[in-house]
Amino acid sequence: MTPGTPSGVALVGDQWILPGIATAHSHAFQRALRGRTQSVNASATRDFWSWRGLMYQLAGRLDPDSIYDLSRFAFAELARHGVTAVGEFHYVQHDPKGQPYADRIAMADAVVRAARDVGLRITLLRVLYQRGGFGRGLDEVQRRFSDPEVGHALADADAIAARFESDEGVRVGLAPHSVRAAGSEWLEAARDHCEARGWPLHMHVSEQPRENQECLAEHGLTPVGLLERLGLLSERFVAVHATHLRRSDVASLASSGATACICRTTERDLGDGAPDLSALVRAGVKLSVGVDSHAQSDPFEELRAVELDERTRLGQRQVALDGPALLEAGSTSGYACIGQALQGDRIWLDANDFSLGGDAGVDGIVFGANGRAVQRSRVLGADVVMDGRVPHQDAITAAFRSAVARLS
Amino acid sequence: MTPGTPSGVALVGDQWILPGIATAHSHAFQRALRGRTQSVNASATRDFWSWRGLMYQLAGRLDPDSIYDLSRFAFAELARHGVTAVGEFHYVQHDPKGQPYADRIAMADAVVRAARDVGLRITLLRVLYQRGGFGRGLDEVQRRFSDPEVGHALADADAIAARFESDEGVRVGLAPHSVRAAGSEWLEAARDHCEARGWPLHMHVSEQPRENQECLAEHGLTPVGLLERLGLLSERFVAVHATHLRRSDVASLASSGATACICRTTERDLGDGAPDLSALVRAGVKLSVGVDSHAQSDPFEELRAVELDERTRLGQRQVALDGPALLEAGSTSGYACIGQALQGDRIWLDANDFSLGGDAGVDGIVFGANGRAVQRSRVLGADVVMDGRVPHQDAITAAFRSAVARLS
Fold first, then answer.
1. Which pLDDT does position A1 carry in this prediction?
2. Out of A51-60, A118-127, A156-165, B110-119, which region has the weakest mean confidence (pLDDT)?
3. Helix or strand or coil: residue B374?
4. Do the chains contact at B269 and A367, CB–CB below 8 Å?
């Protein structure tokens, strides 16, 4: 091994052994949108906000059975390509009229079971969704995401934790959706709840310039500035996207020990722009990655894209992170930011896979691997991928196709 | 099929049938560099020009046997992921001292055989390399690329065409390396030779700002401006990269009927920046794509990256090209710009592959497919990929590993 090789990495015979890889920000049901929002002529999808309209159409139709079928397929695809743990930012809670299901946590329960049936670790990040935006009420679909009082949301999160208490692969956290969708009182309630339980606290932060503008107009502060003033930033805080930050925002994230979760495959699809990675790295902000909308589901592409898009932004090579540093973001840092223990979770890659072509080292894996090089993975001591296949792959795909047809 | 579906696309049972896909710009031997030029601490590789130094080390050691082994693996990897035709921009011609081999075209011969042994169509684009740069002589390695007189290079190209005349899968063209490496007389000779034979004429154009600056200093013209004045632009001309163009350059390419060959996976790796795709599309410039340095070898990633990187550049969605338009660039336009006939070349994808997840249409394929979804391909009436495998895959990989070890 060369110096700088992350711990847990070894070449044994013709197999690379790597630590497990976490995708720390996922909306699994959005997998059903892949390939369905791309047409140039669909004028309704020309920016992030109109893409969100298509996503809302789908979210409005989900029920516990269909969110299970979509999520299980999405998790199986991730597992097949080397993901071993997922942070699920879960926001569709209630029935289509916004009323709680008889089992109040039926939707979260379905998503957790989908991940655990595939064999992945999952951290269910229960979303807090108060309002449609700064000074805006809820629209029809958003009522499914929301609760009349923040206490209901916190109680549901506790109920999820209690139901899966005996399953070491399940963790719970809170996710106030964004400064757009959660006001100060809700944010403070989330802060206290996570503090008391040692839970991770995730939020979408500065994904779009419009969010910054509206936050400045309401509070005179950037989203990160507001979160700092409210005391939300800590080592358990994860700023998802962190695309449009000021220098002072970067310094605040760094000094608090928070993590930035970069989601390049989705950000690239949605035209979000690219973060100033060099500034984040220079300041020492911890990094993880997320599959987000499941526009693509290969953790190696997810990792390398963080560095590659910074090269495009600056017109230089190797500006911030090499293969070992990126792998560390996906494994140690990714697991930590969703409150999971990496322990013995491992993946095995065929060194003779076309995408690797022999012993190309950690740089070769991170910058070159196709996730199909993964031959095996183990999570919590159990096999998840075996001989390059996820068990019941055909049945999982058939159930996904059937759910997509029902929802269309 | 929805309107706008490219001809040759069909869903039959659980298989998508697509036209063949061309990668119009390749340096196959550079496949050996994947994963070996990424380290942040290797200060020697911080930009395009120092990356070129590492590539020259490798180029300096090649011989006909090793370029065959490296190229055959690179072509097999492309074939496995859906590529059916390749434009090989071939520049290592002579022995390490710059002397012609006993068989003057031994190196080109090896590269052509490598492609044909895998079953791909290949257009051998014989490079013309006169000098090290504007006002610079040849360095030691560059002597392998060069010829004392342009006539020698043209004669070699004719010899390659003659040797493979009976093979419908082989075509020949010329590739003056760039305005840096070929002066006006050589460019005019290439123009006349291609005109007389109906051959494609490829050049690296405006990949790096420095090339533009030096060309302006020498000629008072941009690279495209110079090529226009010298009469090189035509429907047979391919401007590779076309990254840093002025508005007048775009107009010149469009009015001449030339093609721009975008190589995003490599350009993203090398920190080249991104082209103004919207301007190219608005002006009506024909587009194709190229794998270039083989940093990654998935034609679907190569195609979608053209649009995705434009979204990042502009901070918008769907700014220029949808799935059908991108597939057209890879198939019809890609084949045409390397002088090959698409005819019955086809690839078959498993619609139930994890990356497709059922019938997601051409947008789903182009924006979502992992090349491993390719189950079968046929080129010139013969099978190239069967049951998701290239014949002799293990032997091809072993020979590649052995060649890499010899060259290191």
1. 42
2. A51-60
3. strand
4. yes
> pLDDT value at position A42?
55
Joined together, the tokens standing for residue A150 give 């923040």
Q: How many C-beta atoms surround the C-beta of residue B64 within 10 A?
A: 19
Question: A267-303 pLDDT, tens per residue?
Answer: 999 998 999 999 999 999 999 999 999 999 999 999 9
**Nearest-CA distance A164 → chain B (Å):** 29
Which chain A residues have a beta carbon less than 8 Å from that of B39? 318, 322-323, 363
The predicted pLDDT at position B360 comes to 77
Nearest C-alpha in A relative to B296: A368
The span from the CA of A287 to the CA of B54, in Å, is 30
pLDDT band at B1 (very low <50, low <70, confident <90, very high): very low
Q: Say yes or no for a CB contact (<8 Å) between B318 and A38.
A: yes
Q: For residue A334, give the amino acid letter.
A: G
Closest by CA to B27, choosing from B161, B124, B136, is B124
The per-residue pLDDT for range B58-80, each reduced to its tens digit, is 999 999 999 999 999 999 999 99
Give per-residue pLDDT as tens, A54-103. Answer: 888 899 999 999 999 999 999 999 999 999 999 999 999 999 999 999 99
Count chain A–chain B contacts defined by CB atoms under 8 A.
208
Mean of pLDDT over chain B: 94
Q: Which among A73, A271, A372 is the nearest to B316, CB-wise?
A: A271
Are the C-beta atoms of A242 and A287 separated by less than 8 Å?
A: no
pTM for this structure? 0.96
Closest CA to B307 of A38, A367, A304, A209: A38
In 3-state terms, chain B is what percent helix, strand and coil (to 5)?
45, 20, 35
What is this model's ipTM? 0.95
| Residue whose token pair is 């970069």 | A262
Residues of chain A with C-beta less than 8 angstroms from the C-beta of B317:
45-48, 50-51, 269-271
> Mutate which of A14, A37, A38 to disrupt the B interface (most B C-beta within 10 Å)?
A38
In degrees, rounded to 5, the angle at the alpha carbon of residue B243 between the alpha carbons of residues B240 and B246 is: 115
Q: For B38, which of A323, A355, A404 is closest by C-beta distance?
A: A323
Q: Of B246, B275, B272, B290, which Cα lies nearest the Cα of B22?
A: B290
Instruction: Write the CB contacts of B17 (distance below 8 Å, at least 6 apart in sequence).
Output: B8, B9, B10, B11, B346, B347, B348
Which token pair is A328? 């560390």
pLDDT digits (tens, 9 = 90+) for B221-247: 999 999 999 999 999 999 999 999 999
Q: Which of B244, B317, B365 has the most A C-beta neighbours within 10 Å, making it the best mutation to test the interface with A?
A: B317
Nearest residue in chain B measured CA to CA from A269: B308
* CA–CA separation, A392 and A80 (whole Å): 12
CA–CA gap between residue A193 and residue A213 (Å, rounded)? 29
CA A375 to CA A373: how far, in whole Å?
Answer: 6
Give the gap in angstroms from C-alpha B37 to the nearest C-alpha of chain A.
8
